[in-house]
Amino acid sequence: MANLWSGRFEKGMEEIVEEYNASINFDKRLYDCDILGSIAHVTMLSEIGIVSEEEKNKIVDTLQQIKTEIEEGKLNFTTKDEDIHMAVEGVLIKRLGDTGKKLHTARSRNDQVAVDTRMFVKKEIKLILENLTYLEHVLLEKANKYHDSIMIGFTHMQHAQPVTIGFHLMSYFQMFKRDMERFIDSYERTDYCPLGSCALAGTTIPINRHRTSELLGFKHVTENAMDSVSDRDYILEFMSAASICMMHISRFAEEFVYWNSQEFGYITIDDSFCTGSSIMPQKKNPDMAELLRGKVGRVYGNLIQLLTVMKGTPLAYNKDFQEDKEGLFDTVDTLKKSLLIFAKMLEKTEFNSENIKKHMNKGFLNATDIAEHLVKINIPFREAHEIVGKMVKYCENNSKDFVDLTNEDLKNIDSRLNKNAMPDLSMEGCIKGRVSYGGTAPSEVLRQIEAGKSAMESFNFPN
Predict the structure, then answer these.
(1) Residue 68: CB atoms within 10 Å
(2) Which strand (E) or helix (H) includes residue 268?
(3) Total domains, the chain
(4) Are residues 247 and 333 both part of a single domain?
(5) Which one, of 222, 223, 230, 224, lies nearest residue 201 by Cα?
(6) Residue at which a domain ends, from 70, 105, 140
(7) Residues forming beta bridges with residue 163, ordered by sequence position
(8) CB of 266 within 8 A of CB of 259?
(9) Structure pTM?
(10) Of 221, 247, 285, 393, which is the most exposed, with the fewest CB atoms less than 10 Å away?
(11) How far apart are CA 183 and CA 128, in angstroms?
(12) Range of the domain at 274
């Protein structure tokens, strides 16, 4: 097929330039969005009298045939087609002649690619939200199952305070809930139709951009033609939300890796999400958790790559913008699969409560509870904090735990202390006492779970 701008040029491209310039090998993925955009565009052109009803019907029928043939693998494109937009139009013109040449009236590839990618991002956000919803429901189910099962809460990877497994899981529920909110917000700013902006300045032809927007299911029409063709903020925002979401997956996956180790033994991951060793027959490696942890790097990289592309591009359209798609496609694929795999892995992972209990006697997990109890008997918190610090040091020096301290030991530490001044130091007692809003008490975790369920039901998902 001759280049669609051949009237200006006397020479064709060098073969290596043609290959370097082409995007058909990856942007062919946009074929369905491209054809839908073209059908809406020609429908609008017929309504304003630029093409006849008969011509419109021929173009629409042929475009639908091309779509079917692409899906059935009957149409193969090469770098000579350059991109999916020219490839589809080239086939259309070959089949319809002059009628096919009318399709590109009052549009440019600049606004064509913009509408295609916006439609693609909208579609993929909906699918990502489906996977996030699945993951959130798994988290709610697991949190409910383990709402009163005790585990160790860490800060600085040091034993800090006792918490429940359900409480820990609900912290991740909140992270992914924010991710859902970010994607819904991102969808709103993506839901603007740029088609009809043409190359950068609009058109003299009396088109109806609002009608095209309506036919394509967009909520709004972009306001400025120059911005419409040069804007990639919606991709950057999507990639940013995806990067944050992948970071949350990576943090959770990291905990899976060390929870699964012999040193911790907190969880048992289903065999279907692990692999063995080629040399050590005893090994059961948490490979999916490790891979999920590692995948975040490529999503970060895609965001930084596009930010770098955009930082030095003057208005309006530039060929640099072709570099937005491979990173976008990779981010979409990586995030969707990561969410689905993690949700399924979590669903089939069980916590080993008995193993976790073996670790509970290390690190003076109930120290803060003693300090808070002393506050209740009118000892200022900073003073209480110092007293408990002395208790810890005494225990370390004498190989004791808090419960082993005698009245004499306590008096030696501080004259106000005695066994009767101590709170319930059991892990269950510590847990049950933390009933502050957002705390780890089982009753409060159950409230958080119910609030989470309500939040999932009240999400205003895009249609």
Answers:
(1) 12
(2) strand 267-268
(3) 3
(4) yes
(5) 224
(6) 105
(7) 151
(8) yes
(9) 0.93
(10) 393
(11) 8
(12) 110-196+223-357
